[in-house]
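WARN retry 2 of 3 for item q-0093 after timeout on previous attempt; input resubmitted unchanged.
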Amino acid sequence: MTERIVVVGAALLDGGRLLAARRSAPPELAGRWELPGGKVEPGERPEAALVRELREELGVEAEAVERIPGSWPLRPPYELHVWTAHLRPGSAAPAPLEDHDELRWLTPSDIWTVPWLDQDVPAVRAALPRLGAASPDA
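OK item q-0093 returned
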C-alpha cells in the first residue's frame, strides 16, 4: 500500500469570511475554486507546511490555528487535511501568486456562489461552523 501524502488546506478566516482561491493550473482544475494550500514536504510539520504554502501562493504571513477534524481523499496517494488559519498582524493582503488567478473573501451566504473543486466541498462544509454558518443540505 502506498503511503498517503498529506496536502494541507487553509480555511483562512478574517472577519467572518473565508478566503477562496480560483485555480489557474493545471488545465483540468482551472476555473474551479479551492482552499489554498499544498503538499507537506518530508520531515515538515503540517502546520509549518500550511504557513509556507500560504507565503508561497498568496504572499501572506499566516498562523495555523486548529485542525478541522476529518480528512478528504484527493487523487491517490494524496489526502487533504484542513486547518483554520488567520493572517498575522501586519501581513500583506493575499494576492494570487502561484496556481491561482483570483481570490475572494466569502461570507457564509456567499460560500456556495463559486464552483468549488469537488474534493474541497466537504472540507468547506466542515469549515463553515467556524464562520458561524449552518452547513447547507447540498
